[in-house]
Amino acid sequence: QELLSSLYNVDYANIPTYKEKNFIEIKGEVVDDENFSEVVTDYAIPKVAEGKSSLIICETIKDAKSIQEILRRRNSNITIRTFFDEENSHITEEEINPGEVVIATNIAGRGTDFKTSDELERNGGLQVCVAFLFYNKRVEDQAFGRTSRQGNNGTAKLIIKKSEVDKLGTDY
After folding, report:
1. 78-115-147-140 Cα dihedral, nearest 10 degrees
2. How far apart are CA 55 and CA 147, in angstroms?
3. pLDDT digits (tens, 9 = 90+) for 19-37
């Protein structure tokens, strides 16, 4: 800012966001690869039982389908929506209600905000679970803010595979 200000003789001002975020980040977990899908599922089911809804963002369709299958086996009363690619983009136009789980890949609807019902907001909003490690903080913030950047309630948590953390040592 100082460089641009001195070169172009302009001033800068901080402009606050339109709506304040009602967002809480929950401490993340690193889990064994073998238990990964079960841990993610175990995080989502109690949230739904509390009258909330979960958005689970996976890196791959394979992980998303594995979580979907476990959710179906463990609780047939949960409404599951999938958003694996842009062909399913219509789900972002529908309100998310209490008791629903949306399973998506990161590429699906990148930057898309989800609409939540008033009842879901009264129950605490959308609970975002990101099920992989981002290599970019901006993309992580984007995923975590799927409803909170609209001023809605919500939480977010990272649950990542131990192999992803182990790989960091060799990639950097």
Report:
1. 70
2. 10
3. 666 778 899 999 999 999 9
Extract the runs of DSSP E, i.e. beta strands, from 52-141. Answer: 53-58, 79-83, 100-105, 126-130
C-alpha separations of 67 from 28, 137, 165 in Å: 18, 25, 20
* CB distance 57 to 128 below 8 Å: yes
pLDDT tens column, 37-47: 999 999 999 98
Nearest to 56 by CA among 152, 146, 139: 146
- Mean pLDDT confidence for 121-138: 85
Q: Describe the crossing of helices 36-49 and 61-74 by its angle, rounded to 10 degrees.
A: 50
> Of 168, 164, 167, which is closest to residue 32 (Cα–Cα)?
164
